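>> Question from a student workshop board

For tomorrow's exercise we were told to take the sequence and the ligand below, predict the bound structure, and bring the output to class. My setup keeps failing. Could a helper post the expected result so I can at least see what it should look like? The ligand is zinc ion.
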Amino acid sequence: MDPKHAYQELVRRGQEIAYLHALGALAGWDQRTYIPRRGHPHRAKALAALTGVLHRKVTDPEFGRLLAAVEDSGLVEDPDVRANVTRWRRDYDRATRVPERLAVELAEAASAGESAWAEKRDRNDWEGFLPFLKRVIELRRAYAEAVGYEEEPYDALLEDYEPGLTAREVERLFAELKPQALDLLARIQASPERPPVEILHRTYPRAAQEAFVLEVLPELGYDLTAGRLDPTLHPFAIRIHPGDVRITTRYFEDFFNPAFFGSVHEAGHAMYEQGLPEEHWGTPLGESVSLGIHESQSRMWENLVGRSRGFWRRFFPRAQARFEALRDVGLEDFVFAVNEVRPSPIRIEADEVTYNLHVLLRFELELALFRGELAPEDLPQAWNERMRAYLGLEPKDPAEGVMQDVHWSGGSFGYFPTYTLGNVYAAQLFAAAERELGPLEERFAEGAFAPLLDWLRAHVHRHGRRYLPAELIERATGEPPTARYLGEYLEAKFGALYRL
Ligand code: ZN
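>> Workshop helper replied:
Here is what the output should look like for this input. Compare the format with yours to find the bug.
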């Protein structure tokens, strides 16, 4: 086979797969926004049919033959070709190592587990949920054995979300983070300073919230001519294809934070997708690299930018113009209020300091499960013990404790650590950007967000999947991933707010 033609054919197939994915993404977006209620059963079937078509395409033996033809040729001396072929090979091998029977069982168990979770969680029925959970754990173990790993089964699961990362490496990062977070939280709780959070729970009309979000996001760099904002129940960002990267949010008229900071978070994801190189669409170089890197972008815009004083020096007067509720509020009070630290049993309500403790707890339990050190039956007890130790809280029932998140019910073990990795990467990238560009908050106060976005485009977005996440971080910042910058950032910010 002529290697040049083989490569062209790989690109053609990659683009065809990407366009089919795009239609799936569009149908999925609609399913989570505007679909009429009675449309759900058939939409689920339509998407399952598309998944089947896509699975056959990505595991087609001809794809493997085309890859081999390019791998054995001089074409791989071109760095773009080499990067694409390396990632395609990795994806192809992982996909074809999973026996079809196991893939089907996993999909069925995930779907059964997720519906059981939704139903049993509402009734606080842990015992009823347990058999579904045991089933997905058992199948995930089989999956890990099928795709393979170097040190331990959990590594195979992590590989799906954060390529190249191992459980040991996560343990190392989290060991740096944990004592700092616990110590900072203890000092914050001992501080007499308390933010006036009542101001965030006044009346914020939905239409004004939406208008405000749509005023702010384009200034940050989210391109609304290649995106849109819609309401949903569980907010997300989704790339349909280049030129169409959408975000969603959820409005509460008695709470300012969720729609605003949620939208900035999703716009952070979307700006990453909008920054991927369009000329590589359909190949790995045109794709995002990992969930951790994705989350670093969303968390950076949400927290390091969106919850900074510099940001609000720019936008608070405009917020006051839009919201009656803020007319008698001062900037300092507002900035303190949106940065309140208060332990909650619920992860998605957590602030910047306690969030990582929620993730740590889940990671420790997942790892113990997959190392055979913890039985699924014992999860609630282990959960509650850690909740007491880390956050000083006692979940009142399973819905508020071990059953609060959907992830485990669908077998997504290895996903949680990527949330904290996102925080770690965000702080490290932001520090590197400031070393190059100077203090950024001053720039934000002037409305200059482009320097940061351009830096991220150059050091993160434009690379697609060229480098593994840890390599990408090292190239962008000069150091391998380290929790040091997150620790320093949290200490400086909350030390000042709470006068520690
Ligand atoms: Zn996110």
